[in-house]
């Protein structure tokens, strides 16, 4: 037990380290230890997010360009869709984290600074400093590793034992979906359109169904995903490759258009389509991150429809809600979490995450 080899393996661990665009490496790095107020998680799984794929691909929003400065601090262990078991608590950590050694827990992706005007007014998810786990080494390394250090300022939540591994790993995407749906302020007699049935879009479908709108319509280019959307409670599914979406939505709403449109496609087409099929005075929720700029007739928003355009960023106050919805069996990951791979196969995982046959891919340390 005290041999040097055993010692070495206890002090180091495997991790997927982001060094730059197209440069992610599986490395042996030193295992983190908990300082005062901190917690160490033994990672159970870490999902690959579309943002991880975009970051690896070198997207400007991560690495900077003409319009914005670089945001990622490399080298950094990637991954923000993690959960794990608490294996170590630093001095004083019990004072601000409601967990004990042996509990399963998850930290929100943002680590609020606690000092800026947003943090100060309770809008911690818009924190001006905006440190996100898995991208900014300054606060901590990410979750694509065997162990992870949770900084004292993180927002950590305990996970009940009843949740499966897939459910635990899906808490973060679900929490983001819940916030976007909440922004739509869905009423009982609303016709709601969700555009984009990726992992978070499919979470939104299940959450929007729980709000019991009059009609729930889901739009996507992939029929397999529309099938899932139907299973999760969509009343109508439309594929723009085949259906005249605008005509169908008008037909379903007495010619008016939908009351709420939640944009989760990440494509400029999804924005233009929404502005076309939403009714006057409707609520347009923008959730996506875009790889390119979108051009629209901006006068639709004011002069023609007086729209309520609402952004949705991260998952403020919705982690406990996500955990509760899954614990109560109201949201499922069946059909959404499609692949589980060991950390060593992360390259394959990233490739799979963009393939049509997968929805959510997990890395298991
Ligand atoms: Zn994500
Ligand atoms: Zn702040």
Polypeptide structure, described:
The protein is 28% helix and 26% strand. With 365 residues, the chain is an alpha/beta fold. The chain has two domains: 3-170 and 333-364, Quinone Oxidoreductase, Chain A, domain 1, CATH 3.90.180; 174-311, NAD(P)-binding Rossmann-like Domain (Rossmann fold, 3-Layer(aba) Sandwich). The strands form four sheets. Strands 3, 5, 6, 9, 10, 17 and 18 form a seven-stranded mixed β-sheet that branches. It has a six-stranded parallel β-sheet with strand order 13-12-11-14-15-16, sandwiched between helices. It has a three-stranded antiparallel β-sheet with strand order 2-1-4. The longest helix has 13 residues, at 171-183. It is globular. Residues 1-7 have low confidence and may be disordered. The structure holds zinc ion (ZN) (2 copies). Residues 49, 51, 80-81 line the site of one zinc ion (ZN).
Share of β-strand residues: 25-35%
Radius of gyration: 21 Å
Bound molecules: zinc ion
Number of helices: 13
CATH topology of the largest domain: Quinone Oxidoreductase, Chain A, domain 1
Going by CATH, the architecture of the largest domain would be Alpha-Beta Complex
> Terminal Cα separation, in Å?
22 Å
